[in-house]
Structure formats: structure tokens, C-alpha cells
């Protein structure tokens, strides 16, 4: 008799964004005459930058020609892309990251979800609340938690992000081994200062712990004082892995390309206390279970590092940030306290009401989709997340409808 992985039974029946999509689709089916505007899931709407499209076309032509055709590429990614990343995303910002410490993949969601399998099943987890659900759910699947009691899994040290701490969690008073941090934050849009990140690096070092740093939204940081990479913090090479994505930087949600940085100086320990390079473990995992991102996609990603590519992606991000500003201003004017939207594409609105109720209200009265804060964790209750990813016209219409609905 085949047995199932019973850890799955501890999970909610469906993934947050699948659950929301189901509710929205049911509403659309019941009200075909009421067009819905989606500011829920953070999915880009604007076309790929022209440099990426040109690179895609050129690479596709190479694949059509026997002399330039490519079969399997390196699992870790082509050197042209890894070198461009090392140079433009790290060396240019004073970070010491070499091209062979960068692993190209088809998404940060997959990498954030998969990375945990190279660590022991009994590592102690520290996970923010509210949080991107993938960090929690993948650890539940792996059997690192107990049951969900009153909205929280046993065995996780939750890092509360609340109005009182500006939604940047405090260092826990207990030792933990695997720490998830995300800045600019999804869902709150909060950013962490250099001093705050330095405190996390010191905590990780003191505990021989590892920080999993998700910086998928780093391109949205406009405040020059805010670090864009954990590797801007001295000592981070010994304690951190960083996840980055082209999804929100260059509109690649449908094109799929991301990367994970695993410094060679990062160690994990065996039961006898001997140190082992995490880079070798991730390389083993990656080469066994992944066969690389398509060549044309990697060419398209590399194109964003050209002068024209930098200009075009900068324009794209500025466009979404201008949406974010409109949303934050409009929600503030309606009397809500908001954060995010200035260095992030998400606006975290403190509604002071049940978040699913507020979600239903916006859907039914304004035909606008947001994400209920409770879906990101217990501390998300009372909040909703509004995404800036949409056309200007849709954002303006959505804001007018919200204002009318809340009158
Ligand atoms: C979100 O809405 O939080 C994002 O779309 C998540 C993701 O990038 O997977």
C-alpha cells in the first residue's frame, strides 16, 4: 500500500494565490458584466523590454541553425549570464561574489522552496510573519514542523512584523539555524537598513546559522541608503544565501529566469560538527535535479545588463513605482495607514478590519482584487496587500472604484 507524505495534511488545502484565484474566478463567472481589476498576485502586466525581445529573437535564430544550435547547457547557467550578474549586480556595488557562486534557475519561488532540502530535517527555523507562503509551506512539506495550532505551525520561531516594529522583525531571543528574510519585503514592502541587516548577520554568525535572503524586489529600492544585497554587509559571505529574480526586475514572470548566490565560504555542519561547503551541496542538488534555463531565455536575461537594457528595465520599474505611489497616496487619503510602495511594488494597508472581509468588500463592491493579509500569516490579519503591477489606466480605475466603495 503506497503511503502518502502525511506532512501535506498539515497544510491548508490550497496555496494562497490559488485560493484567491478560485474565489475571483467564481465571482467573474457569476458577474460576467462586471470587469475585475487584479491587484492581488504580484504578476507583471507590461511587455518585456525591447532589448530582451531582440535577444530572444536572435537566440531563437541561433537555435534554428546547425552551426549555432545548443543542446543541454551548463546546469548552473551560461558563463555570459553568470559573469554579467557578478559584474553588474555585485562587483559594481562593492560585493565580492564570483560568477561561479551564481546559479541560474527558472525562478526564485522554486529556489526558495528547494533550498531547504540540503539542510537537516531538525534544523530550527526562524520565519517572519507575515511572510511569502512558500518559505513556511515547503518546510511543512519536508516535515520540519508540527501541527498548525491556531494559525501557526509548531516548531517554527515566528518573527513578528507589526506596526510597532515598522514591520522589520527583531532578532529572536532564542538560537535558530535557518533564517528566512525578505527585503524589500513581500508582502509588506518594508525595507531593512544596513544596521538592521548587520544585526542579523551577527546573530547568524554567533549561532552558526544561515540566512536565506530573498531580494527578488531589490530593483525597486530607490533609497540609496538601503542595501540591495545582503552581501553589502561585511561577513555575509559566511552566513547568507541570496535569491534574486528577473521576474519583477524585467517582466520575466512568464519567461522564467532567476538566480541564487551561494558563496563558497558558506558552511553547514555534520553531526560530528565538521564543516562542509554549502556551495558543493547546492551544486550537487542543482545538477541532479535541474537541467538549466533555456538558452534564449538566458540571452534575454543577459540583455538587461547592456546600457539600453539598464535604461529600459529602469523605466519599467519606475512605471510600477509610479503606480505604487498612486495607490499609497489614495489609500492614505482614505484614512488608512500604509507602508511600502516607495522601495517596493507592494503597499501594505492597515485596514483595522478582518482581512478576508475587506478582500470580499473590495471584490464585491469595487471589483478590485487585493491579497488578504491573513493569507501571509497571523500578523497579517487586519491588513491587505495591494500590488502595483498593472496598467496605469487599471490602477486609476481601481482606485476610483475603491474610493467610491468605501465612501
Ligand atoms: C506574490 O504575489 O507574492 C508573488 O507573485 C509571488 C511570486 O512571485 O511567486
TrEMBL record:
Pathway the protein takes part in: Amino-acid biosynthesis; L-lysine biosynthesis via DAP pathway; LL-2,6-diaminopimelate from (S)-tetrahydrodipicolinate (aminotransferase route): step 1/1
Enzymatic reactions: (2S,6S)-2,6-diaminopimelate + 2-oxoglutarate = (S)-2,3,4,5-tetrahydrodipicolinate + L-glutamate + H2O + H(+)
GO molecular function, one term: L,L-diaminopimelate aminotransferase activity
Protein's UniProt keywords contain Transferase: yes
Database matches in InterPro entries: Aminotransferase_I/II_large (IPR004839), DapL/ALD1 (IPR019942), PyrdxlP-dep_Trfase (IPR015424), PyrdxlP-dep_Trfase_major (IPR015421), PyrdxlP-dep_Trfase_small (IPR015422)
Necessary cofactors: pyridoxal 5'-phosphate
Keywords: Aminotransferase, Pyridoxal phosphate, Transferase
GO biological process: lysine biosynthetic process via diaminopimelate
Pfam families hit by this protein: Aminotran_1_2
Coiled coil (UniProt feature): none
Keyword set includes Transferase: yes
EC numbers for this chain: 2.6.1.83
This protein's name: LL-diaminopimelate aminotransferase
Domain Aminotransferase class I/classII large: 35-402
